[in-house]
Amino acid sequence: MYENLLAQDGARTSLLGDIESGSVPPALLFSGPPASGKLTAALETARILSCARKGAWNCSCPDCVRHRLLIHGDLLLLGKRSFPEEIIVAREFLLRSPGQSSAYFFLRSIQKLLARFNPALWSGEETKLAKAAPLIQSIGEALDLLDPEGLGGGIPATVAKAVESAYSDALSLEPFAPEAPGVFMIRNMEVWAQLAPAGRRKTIIIENADRMQDSARNAMLKILEEPPETVRFILLTSRRASMMATILSRSRLYSFAPRDEAATALVLSRVFKSDEMASSLQSYLESRIPFPPQLARVHAERFAGRILADLTDKNPATGPLGRALAQEAALAGKSIAELLDELGEATGGFGAKDKTMAGSFARFIKALLSVFSDLLKESAGEPAIVALVDRWSRLAREAAVQYGSLNRNPDLLVKVLVTSFGDGI
Ligand SMILES: [Zn+2]
């Protein structure tokens, strides 16, 4: 059990102890840094609790088979997650080293995304999925052609085609995944939890459980007050301090330690069969995405700097970060529109023309909001700057919503954004 949970001996020992003594609590909280194995451990816990036999790693009972493919009807997986990096790494791994483990890894990376569209979660709100439904269906059909158990050392042409199709559709589907579970999902989850499991036990896993809206958190809390006997909740967080105290008090804590470079190397070689070095698994994953967060930050700083440079005559007073950004932008001498044109060029129209860039818009807006937030912190004494930065943040957040829920063309959205930013200057 937990053979795939590497370099997390503390959490592994606690979990094994609870399982062996039959004392797994109704609610478990896995706390630790991003990409430290929390989800791996949660999915393995779900499999073991479901298993009709003894939960062995290679158990071939029907429950374990379905859990390994992440298609078990007794599993619900929700919560905020960034999908593209794992899907991109998984495809690269499968093509580089075709075999059972890479095929499972690829399938699971996409099933984690499909799980967010589980009909049980969307009951009553199906119309919101109208645009996503054809993608979901086509991914399902493509994945049916990929059988990890039947994959030897090479990939037959039909399977290779299915892999490419699932990959491309998954990246297109990703922007439809909800940022955080809405209250209707938590209510649907409650209904689901009350129904008897198909097997021994149901498991509900919520990633980034600290990032739920208040209404969803309160609904969640009510369920945790009287959890159904047959259900186990596993909440994951990398920010335990942001969890509601009342939720914390109802869950048993399992701590996941940060992995050092040696532990990361072990994970990379055992899981990905890669001899690369990385400071953390998170940075390895992020290094694979074509528009990583660090690059998004560079672009966001240039962008914010340009707006500040345009403002310099009217309101020069900002802190050191603001001044540095404005100075750099003034030296570069490019307008906001030119900067965004360059960025649109580099990101394939923010994914509109290049699907591997599907997440670039969301990452750019996120980086922009973080730059604005840093500017706000250092401009606390300057009401004019605070008001402006507040307005820019609101515009950026609105663009993110339009992109996420309305599936607007990201390339057009940034063009609109440029105009509205300009209005305030
Ligand atoms: Zn089993």
Q: Give me the count of strands.
A: 5
Q: What is the C-alpha radius of gyration, as a whole number of Å?
A: 23 Å
How confident overall, as mean pLDDT? 89
CATH architecture of the largest domain, by name, is 3-Layer(aba) Sandwich
CATH superfamily of the largest domain: P-loop containing nucleotide triphosphate hydrolases
Bound small molecules, by name, code or SMILES, are: zinc ion
Lateral arrangement of strands in the main beta sheet: 2-3-4-1-5
- What's the overall geometry? globular
Order of helices and strands: HEHHEHHHHHHEHEHEHHHHHHHH
Fraction in beta strands: 5-15%
Largest sheet: 5 strands, parallel
- Give the number of helices: 19
CATH topology of the largest domain: Rossmann fold
Summed up, the domain count is 3
Which helices and strands occur, and which strands form pairs?
Elements: H1 9-20, E1 27-31, H2 38-50, H3 62-68, E2 75-79, H4 84-96, H5 100-114, H6 119-122, H7 133-144, H8 157-173, H9 183-194, E3 202-207, H10 214-225, E4 231-237, H11 245-248, E5 252-255, H12 261-271, H13 281-288, H14 293-311, H15 320-332, H16 336-346, H17 360-378, H18 383-406, H19 410-423
Parallel strand pairs: 1-4, 1-5, 2-3, 3-4
The structure holds zinc ion (ZN).
